[in-house]
From TrEMBL:
Domain (S)-ureidoglycine aminohydrolase cupin: 41-110
Lineage: Bacteria, Pseudomonadati, Pseudomonadota, Alphaproteobacteria, Hyphomicrobiales
The protein, known as: Cupin
Domain of life: Bacteria
InterPro entries: RmlC-like_jellyroll, RmlC_Cupin_sf, UGlyAH_Cupin_dom
């Protein structure tokens, strides 16, 4: 067993699809996700890409993002908008609600931690 996991999309078939139809605000965004790491504890890591469009986002999970390419605007429900571009890193915390608008096809590395399931 190795304890080192490279985030590499080579040989991984991406999951492809749009946001949920009821969340799309404009455009026809399509996602491609290369999930390179997944654990039973609800940790996911990989690469995500989206084509232009705008959709509603609601986070129950914690997500670290590092933008590799493209340009997007993430806007919280309170109206605070942030443009994200290559080199930017940030965390979206549980409870975040707003929109994600891709202006130029955007690719990011991500690490997601899902909350434990209530029993």
């Amino acid at each position: 067993m190795t304890f080192f996991a490279a985030i590499n999309t080579t040989g991984i078939e991406p999951e492809v699809g749009p946001p949920a139809p009821d969340r799309i605000i404009s455009g026809q965004p399509t996602f491609r996700t290369w999930n390179a790491e997944e654990t039973a504890q609800g940790i996911y890591a990989g690469v995500w890409e989206a084509t232009p469009g705008k959709w509603r986002i609601v986070y129950d999970e914690w997500e670290f993002c590092h933008i590799l390419s493209g340009l997007s605007v993430i806007t919280e429900d309170d109206g605070q908008a942030r443009m994200v571009k290559p080199g930017d890193s940030f965390v979206l915390k549980p409870g975040f609600k707003g929109t994600w608008e891709v202006l130029e096809t955007t690719r990011k590395e991500y690490v997601i931690h899902l909350p434990p399931q209530a029993s």
